[in-house]
Amino acid sequence: MLDLHGYGPSIFMGAIVTIEVAFLSLAVALILGMLAAVARLSRNRIANGVAVVYTTVIRGVPDLVLMLLIFFGAQIMMNVFSDWLYDNFDIDYYININEFVAGVTTIGFIFGAYMAETFRGAFLAVDNGQIEAGKAYGMSSLQVFRRITVPQMMRHAIPGIGNNWLVLVKTTALVSVIGLADMVRLAKEAAGAVHEPFLFFIPVAFVYLALTSVSEIFLKRLEIRFSAGTVR
Question: Which parts of the chain fold into alpha helices (H)?
Answer without folding.
Answer: 8-41, 45-60, 63-89, 99-125, 128-136, 141-144, 150-171, 183-194, 197-226
